[in-house]
Write a structure and sequence with these properties.
- It is globular, with a radius of gyration of 13 Å.
- α2 packs antiparallel against α3 and α3 runs parallel beside α4.
- 51% of the residues lie in helices and 0% in strands.
- The protein has one domain.
Length: 101
Amino acid sequence: MTIQESRNKMKTRTQEEIQRQVDGLKKEKERLPEYSMFGDNNHAAIDAAIEVLEERRFASDYEEYDESLHNFPEDDIEHVHQMALQAENWLDGYTNDDLFD
C-alpha cells in the first residue's frame, strides 16, 4: 500500500487546509533559529512535518535514525519524530491545532 492509499482511508483535510499548515510551517522555519535553546533542531523537525503533510513520508520514518534517509544529527531524531507525529495526527484528523505558532 502506498502512502497516498493509506492516507486516503483516513484523510479529513482539504488541500487548502494542508497548504495553510505547510505555509505556516515554512514561515515559522524562517523565524526560528535552527536550534532551540534546549538544543532541539527546529529546522529538521519542521522539514519532517512538511514531508508528512505533503505525503512524502510517515511519522514512522522518523522513529529510528537512518543515515541514508536523514540529513540531520542522530541526536535530533526524537524531537524530529515528535513533530512528524504531530503533523500526521493533524493530517489524520486527531487534532485541529495548528502546527505552527
